Amino acid sequence: MPWLRTLISLPLGVAAIVMFHKGVGVLLPRLYGTDLSNDPDRLAMLGLTVVAGILGSFVAAGVARHRLWLHMGLFLIVMIAIDLPAVLGYLSPQPLWFKAMVMLTLPLQAWLGGLLARAVFRKAYGPAA
């Protein structure tokens, strides 16, 4: 049932992002405990956010195992729906460049996660076109 895999894949992708951030928060509590008041912390958090998004996209694609780019498009919409309120809300005091990079890297995250899933799950997705 491909539609069931779709329904399961999107929340699992989001859960992977949340678990990644919680795990890194244990290892680097300084980054997660600050208000991101300097550029090195902002850049580190941006890098972690990109890695988390790639991981979440990979999980979503790995669970779905069909129609890769449709699922990456759907997952991109989910990530936008989560990050846009954050950028407009609790991240609003941050500089414009940081908020823009958070939003502008979302398609890259979905694309790289999809490429990684295609490479790992070659049998499900077939060879890269």
From TrEMBL:
It comes from Marilutibacter penaei. It comes from the Bacteria. Keywords: Membrane, Transmembrane, Transmembrane helix. This is Uncharacterized protein. The chain crosses the membrane at residues 7-31, 43-61, 68-91, 97-121. The keyword Transmembrane helix applies.
